C-alpha cells in the first residue's frame, strides 16, 4: 500500500490513486447498500470493476516501486538495514495511529466499527504485522485493512534480505522465495496439511504479485521502454480483463485480478520518465496529488465512509439525497480527508520516525 513516491513516473502515482479509489468505492457501496436497504430505497452497486482488485494493483505497484527506488542500495554495506528503517518509518506510524483509533472507537462504541476484545496477544500481533487468526478463524488484524500490510511487511523483509546480492540476483531471489511459498501453499492445500497460520497466510499466491512488480522494475532498469500505443493497449486490456474477471469465477485471484494489475502497472511504468506534455501534466495533477495521499486514503476511508453513513442515516439525508449521491459524497470527503491527513499528519510522522530510526549516512530514501 505504501510506496516511496516515484517522482519521475507520474503515471504510477495516478495508478496508485486509482487503486485506492477502487478499494474505497467498494467499501462505500457496501455501506450505502445497507443504508438503502434499511431506508427502503433502491440501490444497485456499480459493477464496472471488481473494486477489491485495487489491492492487487497496489501489490504490483509495491513490487515495482520498491525495486525501482532501491536501485542505489543494491550491493551496498548495510543496505538491508537502511531499507527496512525507511520502510518502517513510512508504513508504521500511520498504521499504528489508525489501529489505535479503531481500537478506541471499538471500545467506546462497539457497534460502530467492530469489536476490540480479541485478547492482548492478538492485539500485539495486529500492531506487529504478524498474521494471527481471530476468534472466528479469519486471519486479519484488529484493523482489518491491515491484512494487506501483513503481506507488505513480509515483502519488505524478504527484499531486505536479498538486497545485498545486487539488482538482478535480488529480483530473482524475491521471485524464487515467493514462488516457493506459493508452491508450498498449493501442495499443503492439495494434501490437506495444516500449515502454521503465518506460513499459510504468506503462502497465498497473491504474493506473486510483488514478484511481478519487481520484475517490471528490473525490466525498466534494463532499458525496456514500450511505445505509447502499446502501453495504451496494455492499459485497455488490463481494465477490460478486470471488468470481465467475474465471468470466470474459478480463476484464482492472482490470475483474475493480479494478471490485469500487471498489465496496468506495465502500461504506467514502461514509458519515458517525466511528465511529458506540460498540458497533460497539468491535467494529471489532481490524480497525482491523490496518489501521493493514497496510503492515507486507504487507511482513513473506512472511518470517513462509516461516519458519513451514520450522519446521513441519523439526519434522514439518505432519503433526500439518494444512495448514489451519498456514495459519491463519501468518496469525495474521503479523498479530501486523505490529502489533509497526508500533509498534516502522515508526513510529519514519517519525518519523525526517520529521524529516530534511520542509520546515519542513509544512502537513499525508499
TrEMBL record:
<dbReference type="GO" id="GO:0016020">
    <property type="term" value="C:membrane"/>
</dbReference>
<dbReference type="InterPro" id="IPR050879">
    <property type="entry name" value="Acyltransferase_3"/>
</dbReference>
<feature type="domain" description="Acyltransferase 3">
    <location>
        <begin position="12"/>
        <end position="342"/>
    </location>
</feature>
<keyword id="KW-0472">Membrane</keyword>
<feature type="transmembrane region" description="Helical">
    <location>
        <begin position="48"/>
        <end position="67"/>
    </location>
</feature>
<dbReference type="InterPro" id="IPR002656">
    <property type="entry name" value="Acyl_transf_3_dom"/>
</dbReference>
<dbReference type="GO" id="GO:0016747">
    <property type="term" value="F:acyltransferase activity, transferring groups other than amino-acyl groups"/>
</dbReference>
<feature type="transmembrane region" description="Helical">
    <location>
        <begin position="170"/>
        <end position="193"/>
    </location>
</feature>
<keyword id="KW-0812">Transmembrane</keyword>
<protein>
    <submittedName>
        <fullName>Predicted acyltransferases</fullName>
    </submittedName>
</protein>
<feature type="transmembrane region" description="Helical">
    <location>
        <begin position="142"/>
        <end position="163"/>
    </location>
</feature>
<feature type="transmembrane region" description="Helical">
    <location>
        <begin position="88"/>
        <end position="108"/>
    </location>
</feature>
<dbReference type="Pfam" id="PF01757">
    <property type="entry name" value="Acyl_transf_3"/>
</dbReference>
<feature type="transmembrane region" description="Helical">
    <location>
        <begin position="283"/>
        <end position="301"/>
    </location>
</feature>
<keyword id="KW-0012">Acyltransferase</keyword>
<keyword id="KW-0808">Transferase</keyword>
<feature type="transmembrane region" description="Helical">
    <location>
        <begin position="321"/>
        <end position="341"/>
    </location>
</feature>
<keyword id="KW-1133">Transmembrane helix</keyword>
<dbReference type="GO" id="GO:0000271">
    <property type="term" value="P:polysaccharide biosynthetic process"/>
</dbReference>
<feature type="transmembrane region" description="Helical">
    <location>
        <begin position="250"/>
        <end position="271"/>
    </location>
</feature>
Amino acid at each position: 500500500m505504501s510506496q516511496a513516491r516515484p517522482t519521475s513516473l507520474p503515471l504510477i502515482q495516478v495508478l496508485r490513486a486509482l487503486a485506492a479509489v477502487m478499494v474505497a468505492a467498494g467499501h462505500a457501496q457496501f455501506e450505502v447498500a445497507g443504508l438503502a436497504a434499511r431506508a427502503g430505497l433502491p440501490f444497485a452497486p456499480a459493477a464496472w470493476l471488481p473494486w477489491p482488485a485495487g489491492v492487487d494493483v497496489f501489490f504490483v505497484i509495491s513490487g515495482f516501486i520498491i525495486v525501482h527506488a532501491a536501485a542505489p542500495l543494491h550491493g551496498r554495506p548495510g543496505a538491508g538495514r537502511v531499507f527496512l528503517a525507511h520502510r518502517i518509518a513510512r508504513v508504521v506510524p500511520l498504521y499504528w495511529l489508525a489501529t489505535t483509533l479503531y481500537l478506541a472507537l471499538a471500545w467506546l462504541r462497539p457497534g460502530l466499527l467492530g469489536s476490540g476484545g480479541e485478547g492482548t496477544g492478538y492485539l500485539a500481533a495486529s500492531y506487529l504485522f504478524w498474521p494471527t487468526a481471530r476468534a472466528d478463524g479469519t486471519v486479519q488484524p484488529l484493523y482489518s485493512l491491515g491484512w494487506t500490510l501483513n503481506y507488505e511487511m513480509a515483502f519488505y523483509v524478504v527484499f531486505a534480505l536479498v538486497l545485498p546480492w545486487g539488482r538482478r540476483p535480488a529480483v530473482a531471489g524475491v521471485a524464487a522465495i515467493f514462488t516457493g511459498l506459493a508452491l508450498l501453499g498449493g501442495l499443503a492445500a492439495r494434501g490437506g496439511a495444516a500449515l502454521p497460520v503465518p506460513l499459510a497466510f504468506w503462502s497465498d499466491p497473491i504474493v506473486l504479485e510483488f514478484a511481478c512488480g519487481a520484475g517490471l522494475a528490473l525490466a525498466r532498469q534494463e532499458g525496456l521502454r514500450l511505445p505509447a500505443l502499446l502501453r495504451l493497449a496494455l492499459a485497455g486490456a488490463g481494465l477490460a480483463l478486470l471488468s470481465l474477471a467475474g465471468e470466470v469465477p474459478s480463476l484464482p485471484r492472482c490470475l483474475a485480478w493480479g494478471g490485469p494489475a500487471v498489465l496496468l502497472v506495465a502500461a504506467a511504468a514502461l514509458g519515458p520518465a517525466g511528465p511529458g506534455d506540460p498540458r497533460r501534466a497539468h491535467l494529471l495533477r489532481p490524480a497525482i496529488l491523490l496518489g501521493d495521499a493514497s496510503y492515507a486514503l486507504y487507511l482513513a476511508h473506512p472511518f470517513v465512509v462509516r461516519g458519513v453513513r451514520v450522519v446521513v442515516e441519523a439526519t434522514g439525508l439518505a432519503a433526500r439525497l439518494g444512495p448514489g449521491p451519498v456514495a459519491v459524497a463519501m468518496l469525495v470527503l474521503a479523498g479530501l480527508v486523505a490529502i489533509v491527513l497526508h500533509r498534516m499528519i502522515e508526513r510529519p510522522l514519517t519525518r519523525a520516525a526517520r529521524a529516530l530510526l534511520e542509520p546515519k549516512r542513509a544512502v537513499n530514501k525508499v
